[in-house]
Design goal:
This protein has about 140 residues and is mostly beta strands.
Length: about 140
């Protein structure tokens, strides 16, 4: 069962079609003067995440993004409780290698549950108000 505990959520504008991207990692991409809102799109590896998409918006519609709190996230690899998550090229969360600095990667969240290989989603504590950059 998916459960969320929103503590900090932003309402942004979907820059692209995100209807199949619920619980993916997103980033800020610009400002829409027509819609008077900050836009977001799927985050890739090495890009600064703004949070985890909570709904499935079409282009130019409201995108609800969790920046602080408990959320589900689509995962790209297995992880243990407490592991630090970063974004991969597909907007999936992957664990940061323990004890190593990964150049150009931004910390996104902490794993709240063990994630076995082949799992689709994991429960995380999102901490995107000031993502740490590992250079």
């Amino acid at each position: 069962m998916a459960s969320e505990l929103p503590m900090g959520e932003l309402s942004l504008v979907a820059h692209t079609d995100l209807r199949l991207m619920q619980y993916h990692i997103v980033r800020l991409t610009g400002f829409s003067a027509d819609l008077n809102g900050v836009e977001c799109s799927l985050c890739g590896a090495g890009l600064k995440p703004v949070g985890i998409l909570q709904n499935a918006p079409n282009i130019n519609t409201a995108a609800n993004v969790m920046v602080l709190g408990k959320s589900q996230v689509v995962v790209g690899a297995a992880a243990n409780i407490g592991d630090s998550w970063i974004a991969d090229a597909n907007g999936h969360a992957i664990p940061m290698a323990r004890g190593s600095w990964v150049g150009g990667q931004f910390y996104l969240a902490a794993a709240l549950s063990a994630t076995p290989t082949g799992a689709e989603r994991s429960s995380v504590l999102v901490e995107c108000l000031n993502p740490w950059w590992y250079a």
